[in-house]
Amino acid sequence: MLIFNCTQAATDFFTRVHKGKKVTPVQNPPFARIEDDAAAMVRDGIDAAQADQWLLHAAVIRRKHVLVAIHLDTRYMMFFSDMKKANVEAFLNDFCQRWMEGMFKLAMRNGVLDWVEMPTAGEQFMAFTSQFVMFKRGERSAQSHINEALWVFKDIVHESDCLPPDEYAVASFDADMNKMLRSSQVHKGEYFYPEEEMLARWLQKFCGVTDAGVAKFREQRSALMRQRY
C-alpha cells in the first residue's frame, strides 16, 4: 500500500469543486504523527513493512503545477512537472511508471539487473501500488529536503526559461537529486544515498533479494563507484 502524506499545497492541488462542494481524495489521518501508523498496523496484525510512506508536495512554477514526492525512509525523490490539477489517476500512473523505470535503470547501472525477474517483479509491484491512501499531514525533515530540491529545480527552470521539456529531462533531474548525500532519523544521523537505499529496498520487496544479497549489492556498488570516481 502507498501512503501519500499531503502537505496543504498538495491537498489543495488534489481538491476540486463539484456543484459548489469541495471534493478531495485526501483524508484526515488516523494519527497526527506518521510514525504512529506503524505501531497501529502492528497492533492490528498488519505488516508495517508492506506500507510505503511518502510525502507529497505541490508548487506552481511558470504557471504550471509541479508535484514532488519523497519517500520518508530512503529520501528517494521524484518530480512531476506540468501536472493536471486534481487528476489523481494521471499522477498515480506517472508515479508508478517513473518509480519502476528508475529502479530498472539503477539496477542496470549497478550491475544487478540480472537479479531482477522482470515479470515477477512487475506483477508484485503493480499489486503493491494498486492500493493507496492520501492523508493530510506533513513531515518537517522530509519537507526541508523537498524545499532544497525545489530551489534547485526553480533555478534550472529560470536558466532554461522553461520547465523540463520531456520525461527524460525531469527523470534526469530526479537522478541528480537522488545521488545527493542525505541524513534522517531513520538512519540515526548517518549519511546515505537515496538511490542506493531505495534500490536495496526495492530489490528486497519486489525481487526477493535476501539481506545477504543486499549486502552484496552494496559492496558491488561501492566498488563500481570507486572505479568511476
In short:
The protein is α/β, with parallel strands linked by helices.
Reconstruct the topology from this structure.
Elements lengths: L1 E5 L1 H6 L2 E3 L2 E3 L2 E2 L7 H9 L8 E10 L2 E8 L5 E4 L7 H22 L8 H12 L2 E5 L3 H21 L6 H12 L3 E2 L7 E2 L1 H14 L3 H18 L1
Helix pairs in contact: 7-8
If you had to describe this structure to a student in words, what would you say it looks like?
This protein has helices spanning 8-13, 35-43, 88-109, 118-129, 140-160, 167-178, 194-207, 211-228; strands at residues 2-6, 16-18, 21-23, 26-27, 52-61, 64-71, 77-80, 132-136, 182-183, 191-192. The protein is an alpha/beta fold and 229 residues long. The strands form three sheets. A six-stranded mixed beta sheet has the order 4-8-1-5-6-7, sandwiched between helices. Strands 2-3 form a two-stranded antiparallel ribbon. The mean pLDDT is 91.
**Radius of gyration based on Cα positions:** 18 Å
Task: Give start-end ranges of low-pLDDT stretches.
Answer: none
The percent of residues in helical segments reads 40-55%
Q: How many structurally independent domains?
A: 1
Number of distinct helices: 8
H/E element sequence: EHEEEHEEEHHEHHEEHH
N-to-C span: 38 Å
| Average residue-wise pLDDT | 91
Broad structural category = alpha/beta
Strand order of the largest sheet: 4-8-1-5-6-7
Largest sheet: 6 strands, mixed
| Amount of beta strand | 15-25%
Descriptive keywords:
two-stranded antiparallel sheet, alpha/beta, 229 residues, 50% helix, 8 helices
